Amino acid sequence: MRLRELQEKTVINVKDCKCLGSVIDLDFDEKSGQIRALILPGPGHFFGIFCREYELFIPWCDIKNIGPDFILVDVEEKEARHKL
Fold first, then answer.
1. What sign does the CA torsion over 23, 24, 28, 33 have?
2. pLDDT of residue 43
3. What does DSSP assign to residue 56?
4. For the chain, what percentages of helix, strand and coil (3-state, to nearest 5) are there?
5. Residue 10 in contact with residue 72, Cβ under 8 Å?
């Protein structure tokens, strides 16, 4: 699967059935080359797109299913937040 294909999928948290958004980047382990986490943008403040305070880092082990249109994750949203 290519990064572009991951970016086209919607990420949904199964804990609260909340749509978290779409993948914008991946976090790789520099030595092994393995994917450590999916990175999603946090909510914007100005018209929903500007002034983001944090990004969501979804650890690879928290991904439950990758379907044709969505990615199901099981994560505590507050724990996944990383300040910008």
1. positive
2. 77
3. E
4. 15, 45, 40
5. no
Going residue by residue through the chain (84 aa), what tens digit of pLDDT does each one get?
899 999 999 999 999 999 999 999 999 999 999 999 999 998 766 665 566 788 999 999 999 999 999 999 999 989 999 987
Q: Which contiguous run of DSSP H or E holds residue 79?
A: helix 77-80
pLDDT value for 49 = 57
Kindly state the tokens that stand for 5: 């294909």
d(CA 28, CA 12): 22
Per the CB < 8 A criterion, the answer to whether 51 and 42 are in contact is no
Residue burial 30-65, b: 16+ Cβ < 10 Å; e: rest: eeeeeebbbbbbbeeeeeeeeeeeebbbbeeebbee
